[in-house]
Structures are given as C-alpha cells and as structure tokens.
Write a structure and sequence with these properties.
The complex is a heterodimer of chains A (about 375) and B (about 525). Chain A contains 12 helices and 18 strands. Chain A is an alpha+beta fold and about 375 residues long. In chain A, strands 16-15-14-13-12-18-17 form a 7-stranded antiparallel beta sheet. In chain A, strands 4-9-7-8 form a 4-stranded antiparallel beta sheet, with helices on both faces. A 3-stranded mixed beta sheet of chain A has the order 1-2-5. Chain B is of the alpha/beta class and about 525 residues long. Helix content of chain B is about 30%, strand content about 30%. Chain B has helices spanning about 35-50, 65-75, 100-110, 130-140, 160-175, 190-200, 205-220, 240-245, 255-265, 340-345, 355-360, 380-400, 435-445, 460-480, and strands at about 1-10, 10-20, 25-30, 60-65, 80-90, 110-115, 145-150, 180, 225-230, 235-240, 270-275, 280-285, 290, 300, 305, 310-315, 320-325, 330-335, 405-410, 425-430, 445-455, 490-495, 505-515. In chain B, the strands form 5 sheets. A 9-stranded mixed beta sheet of chain B has the order 3-2-1-4-9-10-21-23-22, sandwiched between helices. In chain B, strand 14 (about 300) and strand 15 form a beta hairpin. In chain B, helix 4 (about 130-140) packs across helix 5, helix 9 packs across helix 13 (about 435-445) and helix 11 packs across helix 12. The longest helix of chain B is centred in the C-terminal third of the chain and has 22 residues, at about 380-400. The chains are: A alpha+beta (about 375), B alpha/beta (about 525). Chains A and B meet through helix 2, helix 3, helix 7, strand 12 and strand 13 of A and helix 12 and strand 23 of B.
Chain lengths: ~375, ~525
C-alpha cells in the first residue's frame, strides 16, 4: 500500500490521458476534482491487486457521456458517493472494501480518486481496460463473462437509477439513453467485483503505470527524444510517426465523434504521410497507405516537444505531434477481445494484426 | 484627414501619423514612462510638432497598450472581484479560483458564490435563476466588491440568465457598476472561461485609467474631435466604451499589431512575420490579413484561460542577445543586454558580445563603431550567424502549416541581426518603416465581431444556424464601432459534439468591418 498525494495525481492524470489514446476527454477537470478532493479529505491509499483478498468486494466509479459537456457542466461532488452507496445498498453490501477505475483515460482515471478520498476507501491499482474505449461492454471483465449490472447511474440534480440488464450490450444501450437525458453527462457504478474477479479479469498496475508515464512526460529539462525512448521502453512501444496535422475531418454519428486526421511527415519522417482514424479514441493508423497499428493496440498522439497527450477534441490543423503505438493488454488480443474491440467492431475491414508484426512488416518493406 | 496610431510597448512608445491613403506621414519613438500618460504625451507632442500637420484634420486615434497584461503579471491595480457562478448544484466539485496562484486570489479577495441557474448542453434549463438569492448576495457584498464576473453553465448556448443577473446588479449597485458576462468573453470550457471573465472583471480599473489617460493626452494636444479606439489582440479595434467592457481583449495586442503592420507594409495578406526586438523575437502567421489564433488554452499570469489569443511563438533572440563561446560551443541568448545595448555592446564601446556586434562584423548592419569588432574572427562570426539562423529556422518551422517554403516579413528594431538566407524561407521581405510596424498595425486595424454557440442542426438547419450566428456577430461588431454596411464574414469554425443525438455543432463565426 502507498498513498497518492497531489503530485501523484498530477502524474496519473497525464499518464492516463496518454493511455486514453485521444479519448476520455480533457483530463483537466477530472484532475481539478481529484486535487480538490485530496486537499479536503487527504491522500488516498493505493493497494496493488496482490494486497487484496479474494472475498473482498469492490465497486468502480466512472463518468459516462460527452467530454465536451464535462468541460462545461461538471459534477456537484457528492453524487459520486450517492451513486456508489446506492449500488452498495442495492447489492445488500454494508462493507465495500474499495474502489477502482473503469478505464485509463481523461476524467475516468480521476473519478475513483475523488470517490476514494470522499469515502475514505482505498483505491485498487487495477482497471477494466488498460486504456480507454467508448462503450460500457468494452471492459476486460466482460470478456470473462462478468455482468455489468446491477448498475447505478446518477446526475448532479440527484436523479438516480438502477439497471438490471440481460447482457452488457444492453447495459450500454440503455445507459447511453439515460446519460443523454441526464444532460449528456452522468456518474456510473457498474461491474461490482470481488477481489478474486479483479485478480482474474482486471488489468493490473494501471494506476502505477499511468503515474510512471506521467512522471516521464512531465520531467523537466530533458530532450523530448530521451523522454520518449524511456517511455517506449516502459510500455514496449514504438514511435510510429512524427508529423504535422494538415487536415482533420470530423462527423457525429450514432452519438460518437468520428473522424480521421492526416499528418504530413516532419523531421526524421519528412516526405511520409500518416492517416489516423478515430471514434473518440484513435483506432487505426496508416503510414504511407499501409496499416501500422490498429485497435485494440494503442495509438497515442503526443505533442512533438512536450510529449503531453493530445486528445481527439483538440486536434487542429498545424499541430506538430508524434504518433506512438503500444501493444494492448493480452486480454484484448484474445479472440473474444478482438471481437469486442477489434477493427471490425468499429466498422473497419481489417483482420487484427498485432502492432509488433505490423511494425516488423513496415520496416521490412521500408514503408 | 489623418489617423494617429500609438503603441505603448515595454521599452518604447511609438507614435505615427497616416494620411487618408494610409501613407506614413511621420513616426517617432520615445521611452515608455511609468505613468503611460506622460510617454503618450511626449510621443504625441513630438509627432505633432515634427510633422506640423493640421490637428483639426485628425479623425481617428488608436492606442495599442500592454497595461492590462502588465497589471495581471505584476498583480497591480486590480479590482476586488465578486464571482457569481450559475449552475448549482452542478459544478460544485471544482470551485472558482481552484489552482490559481495564491497571491492573485488574495489581490482579488477571492469572493465567490455558486447560485442556481445554467443550461444543459441542448439548451434545456439546468436551473432557474432565483432573484432573491442574487439580491441577498449583492447586499452581503455591498462595499466589498468593485466588479462582478457572471458565469453560467453553457451560457454559450443561451446567455439570457447572465444578462438577467447583469441587469439585476445594475439595478442594485447602479448602472455604472462593472459587470463581466462570461458568454461575451470566452468559449466553451467553464473553468477557463470563468478564469478569463474574472481577469476581465479585475481589469476594470486599469482600463479606466488607461483610456482616460489616452483621451486626456489627446485633449492636451488639442485633439478633441477624433474617434478614439483601442487595439484588440485579433488585429481589430474597439471603441473606448467597448474596451471598458472587455479590457482582457487588449492582452497580446502588441505582437498582433506588429504582424498586422508588417503585412500592411509588405502588402501581403498571407505571410509569416518575424518581429525582432532587443531581447526576444515574436513569430506570427497572418491568414487573410489577420493573425492566426492559438488553438490551445493560454495561460495569462499563470492562470489558464480560453479567450482568443494570437498564435505567437516567442524566442529568446534579439538585437541585444548575448553571444557566448564555451569550448567551441556557441550559444546566442536567451539573455540580453536589453535597453543597455547602447552602453554594453562592443560596437558602442562596451564589453559584452551581442548579436548586433556580429551583424556589424559581417557587414549586415552599420551601427556604432565597426573598428571595435574588427578583431572578431570572421569564421567565428559566421558560426554565430549560423546559430542565429538555426534558432529562427526552428521557430519558423513550428509555425508552418505545410512543408513548403514561406515568405517572411521581417520587422522590428533588432532585425539587423537576422541573416538574409534562412532555410525554409523562400523570400525575405524587409519593408521600409518596419521599425514602427506595431503603431502602423494599430492605425490600420478594422473592427470585428465574434459569436459562438452550440446549434442543433437537426432542429435548426445549418444555413439558419450560420445566419443566426452571423447576425449576432455583426451585432457585436457594430457595438464595437463598426459600420454595418461594410461588415463581412471572415471565419467559420464548426465542431461537432460527441454523444448528442441531434447533430449538435459548436459554431463560431467572426466578422470584420470598417470603422464608422
């Protein structure tokens, strides 16, 4: 066990935004909420998965909705506790051992810290994605057949709902409608899990990894290249491209932000071009017409010089970025994982190929 | 018919006169004084005496000033602000002033209240305004606040609640009481918009003295009939009344004026501009005659804001930058001898090697006594020149939007130190009178209006939405002093919003017109 203080929270916010692969929204508001909560209630305990007991019981906390709404209408502050306790009561549990993040990315790396601080509960170093994805069934717990419900959902006005659904895809559908009605931003608690389930089905050490990534990115007086090499070593990643955004095409479809951006190579990648497709998160990267990374592997855009993560909302013509690719957690690379979050689920006509293979192929063919 | 333009910079106050055909009649420079009024008066007096024009023919007077920027950075002359945030119970998880520098909060007294109100993302009511709640608050604050900032959740969609609160404040505190409404200042992003609105509210006293000082200085020189304007950071002008409502819009108008003036002098509307001062150089991009706006949240005095700012890169390279050689490694800047260049540079008999000395040694510039740098090795000087080129090359590359070479307009007092050939630059243009490009930029500015709102295209078709936004932007421009007949649309930005069923789009339009 260790304590997360304000400095740790700053780093986790940066690292999680990196793992958020462009999605999860601007982490700024989430960070301010977490910092405010720690200031008021004190540092939060972080336990690793190895330190919890199989029979312990945990409930995650997250926000659902439009990142662009969150930057304008953010929570009151006590609804986290309300929705969390509502689910605990519904489950008939008087003893909840702790909480944990649903995903690494933007605001959802921060909400469980707020809950942990307010309730004096420990945070567990484990999530259900190891990155960010747009839909509720896109969690590793789902791959192991864990139900998302019972689920509690609440808004800042005090409306609270409980869902019991027939499967996790229905949870996503119904919760999405409720979220839109609640003003396109809601608090959710779902996938209640025992310690044994977290050990088996969660992505371990994600908070610590986020923090380590954040530490590297925010470290001062260091060359961007040196920082990047250290980062790539930490996450077994690849620098896929250095480029300038020359075009961003966006559309809103089915409640999501879809689009693609075109990059023109700079520095070592001069003369080349890259296209990145996104649906909230970055999903496919094509270099000179050839796919070099695809979902569920991570495609992260960072600022060329500071390496600070670039979210899909802030993509703008002229911005200089580096494109970094990381292998996804092994759970996503299983057959069920690829079915749930692979290229075909998002409507791309590709069979999933691991980034290691794609990079090797690109190097061999000199793409 | 003449126009006068004055730019109060950190070091110099520049003043110029243009005739009705925008020809430069005369230009003067004088040191900026602590009390800016004195510096303005001196510049004006010299300008009028030396040019000997008929004062009665002066129709317009424009002022570009860094007073508001300085007030924030130095935390001086700021007003006590009351902050009213409409949206409770939403948004209480992050209170006003969170993550502000402590000394700044104390200067502004840190008074705030979260009250009921605000809108949802689709325009539905989040909370109704409770007038008794506001009135009670105003009674409590009476005498302890000098200015009020009003911020409503999603006020960019509907701002009638903010305006209702403003009217209420005027009823209780009087018509003259300064109120800043966030919907008129920043874009979507409550915290950043709130921060910008608080800063705007805090500047009400600074802008009052600055504008009064300017009008007074003009009067003392016998200029009483001219229309008086202040420069905004988007390269357009605002009337004195408008400036009093939106002092924050003067922040960063200096670099903007320089690049606008440079574009005018070089007669190019789409170009990159390099303005070289004594300590730093600013690089900006002109698109269709206006500066490109920054796309990231901008910090002003360590406070994160989201009001519009020009996209400017500053590098620590100027005419006074100190040149060093350490074990064969050459460095240039970022420190500078600054305003002491006349004593400290070698060519002026000093002991510090500066970029100006290198320029003189290589025959690029003819200032001071060139025999004092004759001993410098030419090879060394060339290597310093290469280092200067490299600093500029990198900065230019960052500002480019495509890989092609760009035209570069070079202005500013320190521009002699910039070599003629820079990689990535197809043509370097050094316009005549580039030294007073900023005052010229102030003088030729037009008037703009901007409007931003989230529109639901499924219920309000795109064309209608565009028309509505444009009408509102034109209203803003006219309020700022534009002639309605000349106003035209110059920019449309559309950002679709995620998770929304009705094809919601954040639409921002900008219009520009000539002065009335």
């Amino acid at each position: 066990m260790r304590y997360l203080d304000k400095a740790a929270v700053e780093n986790i916010a940066v690292g999680a935004a990196f793992l958020g692969t462009g999605g999860g929204g601007d982490p700024y508001i989430g960070k301010l909420m977490a910092l405010s909560a720690i200031e008021k209630f004190g540092p939060v305990q972080l336990f690793s998965v190895d330190e919890i007991k199989d029979e312990d019981f945990f409930i995650p906390a997250a926000m659902m909705g439009a990142p662009s709404v969150l930057v304008e209408k953010f929570p009151k502050g006590d609804e986290f506790v309300k929705v969390f306790q509502k689910l605990a009561n519904y489950l008939g549990k008087d003893q909840i051992t702790g909480t944990f993040p649903m995903e690494a990315g933007g605001v959802n790396s921060m909400i469980p810290i707020v809950v942990a601080a307010q309730l004096g509960l420990p945070l567990i170093d484990c999530d259900g994605m190891g990155r960010a994805f747009p839909e509720l069934q896109m969690v590793t717990f789902n791959l192991d057949g864990m139900p998302a419900t019972p689920m509690a959902i609440s808004d800042e006005k005090g409306n609270i709902g409980i869902f019991e659904t027939i499967n996790n895809t229905w949870t996503e559908r119904l919760a999405r409608v409720a979220t839109v009605e609640m003003g396109a931003s809601a608090l959710v608690s779902l996938y209640p899990a025992t310690g044994a389930q977290m050990k088996q089905s969660g992505v371990h050490h994600i908070v610590t990894l986020s923090e380590q990534i954040g530490e590297i990115i925010t470290s001062k007086n260091r060359e961007a290249n040196d920082k990047l090499q250290e980062l790539l070593k930490l996450v077994s990643g690849y620098e896929l491209f250095q480029g300038k955004i020359v075009d961003v095409i966006r559309e809103t479809k089915g409640g999501f932000n879809l689009g693609q951006m075109h990059l023109e190579g700079i520095e070592a990648f001069k003369g080349g071009e890259m296209k990145v497709h996104f649906q909230n998160e970055n999903l496919i990267a094509e270099k000179n017409g050839q796919v070099v990374a695809m979902t569920p592997d991570l495609i992260c855009l960072v600022d060329f010089e500071t390496l600070s993560p670039v979210t899909t909302e802030s993509l703008k013509y002229g911005k200089r970025v580096r494109v970094v690719g990381l292998p996804a957690h092994e759970k996503w690379r299983t057959e069920k994982g690829v079915q749930t979050v692979g290229p075909r689920y998002f409507g791309y006509d590709y069979d999933y190929v691991a980034i290691e293979e794609l990079v090797k192929k690109a190097v061999a063919e000199n793409v | 018919m003449y126009r006068i333009g004055i730019d109060v910079g950190g070091t110099n106050t520049d003043a110029i006169i243009l005739d009705e055909n925008h020809h430069l009649i005369h230009a003067v420079k004088s040191p900026t004084s602590l009390d800016i009024k004195i510096g303005i008066e001196t510049s004006l007096r010299n300008l009028l005496q030396e040019s000997n024009i008929d004062k009665a023919q002066i129709t317009h007077a424009m002022l570009g000033t860094t007073q508001c920027t300085n007030a924030i950075v130095e935390r001086k002359k700021l007003a006590q602000v009351g902050v009213i945030r409409l949206g409770y119970p939403a948004t209480a998880s992050v209170l006003p002033y969170t993550s502000w520098p402590e000394d700044m909060v104390q200067k502004l007294s840190g008074q705030y209240a979260l009250v009921h109100g605000g809108y949802e993302y689709d325009g539905q009511v989040l909370g109704e305004v409770d007038e008794t709640e506001i009135t009670a608050l105003l009674e409590k604050w009476r005498g302890s606040v000098e200015s009020i900032a009003v911020i409503g959740v999603f006020s960019s969609i509907k701002n009638d609640q903010e305006l209702q609160i403003r009217d209420l404040i005027h009823e209780v505190y009087g018509e003259e009481f300064p109120v800043s409404c966030s919907s008129l200042i920043g874009s979507v992003g409550l915290i950043e918009r709130e921060n910008a609105t608080i800063l705007n509210a805090a500047l009400c006293k600074v802008i009052e003295t600055t504008t009064q000082g300017f009008v007074q200085a003009l009067k003392e020189e016998g200029i009483t009939d001219a229309a008086v304007f202040l420069c905004q950071n988007d390269g357009t002008l605002m009337s004195i009344d408008y400036a009093k409502q939106f002092p924050i819009l003067t922040i960063a108008c200096g670099p903007t004026n320089s690049i606008r003036g440079a574009s005018y002098l070089a007669k190019i509307k789409d170009t990159m501009v390099l303005d070289v001062g004594g300590t730093t150089s600013d690089i900006g991009v002109l698109q269709d005659g206006f500066p490109r706006e920054s796309s990231v949240a901008v910090e002003v005095g360590d406070i994160r804001t989201n009001f519009r700012m020009p996209d400017i890169i500053s590098v620590g390279l100027g005419g006074g930058s100190i040149v060093r050689s350490d074990n064969g490694k050459i460095t240039v800047g970022p420190d500078s001898v600054g305003y002491k260049i006349g004593q400290e540079a070698l060519v002026f008999g000093g002991n510090t090697l500066t970029t100006t000395d290198i320029a003189v040694r290589l025959g690029l510039a003819d200032v001071g006594d060139k025999s004092l740098v004759a001993h410098l090795d030419e090879g060394f000087a060339k290597r310093v020149e290469a280092e200067i080129s490299s600093i500029i090359e990198q900065a230019i590359d960052k500002m480019k939007t495509s890989s092609g070479d760009v035209e570069l307009v070079l202005v500013g007092g320190g521009s002699v130190v910039i070599p003629d050939a820079i990689r990535g630059v197809s043509r370097m243009i050094k316009p005549e009178n580039g030294g007073v490009a900023n005052a010229i930029g102030a003088c030729i500015a037009q008037i703009s209006g901007q409007y931003e709102q989230i529109y639901i295209y499924s219920t309000e078709p795109r064309e209608d939405s565009l028309r509505d936004a444009q009408e509102k932007a034109v209203k803003q421009a006219v309020l700022a002093g534009a002639d309605p007949a000349t106003v035209e649309l110059v920019e449309v930005e559309e950002t679709p919003l995620a998770y929304h069923p009705g094809n919601a789009t954040r639409l921002r339009v900008k219009v520009v017109g000539n002065m009335k």
